[in-house]
Structure formats: structure tokens, C-alpha cells
Amino acid sequence: MVPPPFLNNTGQRGVFVLPLNLPPAPGEKLDKYDDFTFDAASWTIIAHEVRPGHEMQFDKMVEEGVSQARVLYAFNSTNVEGWGLYSEYITRPYMPIEGQLVSLDYRLLRAARAFLDPELQAGTITQQQALNKLQVDVVSSHAFAQQEVERYTLRAPGQANSYFYGFTKMLSLRKDTEQALGAKFNPMRFHDFILSQGILPPALTREAVMSEFLPAEKMR
């Protein structure tokens, strides 16, 4: 997902491209993957990338505006991808059974990333072991597993595990908010408030909820 410009936006929208294969190295065979190219996968992809995921997340910032400081300094992968995975979570009960199964498998992938990425950085596992874990336990294709390992080690070390970490922070914040408000908890208002903050690190999002959202909701 390529986000739209948040400042001086003149109508640009976010763009999502789903590749269908990995370009092979010279002399190597094309290594295709089919991890996203079937109907049951579309439910989770739409929830994560479109609505209520990133497209809604970014459109909220474009439509309501966001400060220059938050655009330049607060954009945080943990909160961005945490919201994307959380969007899958709140949407999954409304998916058909086959869509729910795929959604759970994708969540398993994010959980695997949470330990495979740092373990590869620490040298406690090999790339082959990570490949095996992704192909056998997460049921990823070889091409996708190879892409994932390259992501953890070469292209973006430390980024892939932000999904599951941000997701757990969102779940914790929602649980604490529900406990504080009881019957007054309204998921739609909670989500709208979260999105209205822009892209903040989880600690600052929590601070905003506790200091602004909770007092306002208790007064309703």
C-alpha cells in the first residue's frame, strides 16, 4: 500500500498493488506464489488494505487533516500495520467460513514474524530454518517464504514484526477501554477516535484515549 500525500493533497488516493510472482534472478526459474490469488483470500486483503484498514486509515487523515509534525515525525509502522491487522480481526466474524480460515492463517503469519525476524537478526536460527517454519507451519508457498526471509534480513529488518506487536497493543487498549466504560463502550466511536489521531505510536494513542476519549464518553 502506497499512502496518499497527507499534506497538500489535491485528490490523490492510496494505491495497493498485489504482485503475482517474484522476478527471477538471471538463470533461475520463475518462482510463483498463490498465497493471495484466490477468492477466500480477498476478504482479509480487503479488510487490511481497504476498509476498515489502511485506505480508511489514510483517508481519515486526508479528509480531516493532520498536523505537519504528525506527518513528518509520528508515522509509525507499528500503529499503521497494527491497525491493518486489527481491521482483519474485527472483520473476520463477518467473513464466510473459508475467508475466516485464511484470515486465521494470515494472523499466524504475523505471529511467526514476531519471533522469526528478531531470531534471524540475533543469529539464533538460520534462513533455512525460517523458510521451513513458514512453509510447513504457516503453509506459505516457497516463493512467498523466500520473500519473507529476505524482508526480515535484507529489505526491512524489524518491520515485519510490527504487525503483531501493534495488533496486541490495539487489543489491549480496546480491552482497557471496554472495562473502563462498560455498557457505554461504543466500538464505532472508539474506532473513529483512534483514526482521528492520525498515525501515532501506540503509547501516544493510548494516552489520547485515556485522557480525551474516556472522559468524554463517561459524560455521555
Annotation keywords:
220 residues; mainly alpha; two-stranded antiparallel ribbon; 10 helices; 2 strands
Lay out the secondary structure:
Elements: E1 21-22, E2 31-32, H1 39-49, H2 54-64, H3 68-73, H4 77-91, H5 97-122, H6 127-136, H7 142-155, H8 162-181, H9 187-196, H10 202-218
Antiparallel strand pairs: 1-2
Helix pairs in contact: 1-4, 1-5, 4-8, 5-6, 5-8, 6-7, 8-10
Structure description:
By secondary structure, the chain is mainly α. It has one domain (38-218). The chain is built from ten helices and two strands; from the N terminus they run ββαααααααααα. The chain has a two-stranded antiparallel ribbon with strand order 1-2. The longest helix is centred in the middle third of the chain and has 26 residues, at 97-122. The radius of gyration is 19 Å and the shape is globular. The two termini are 37 Å apart.
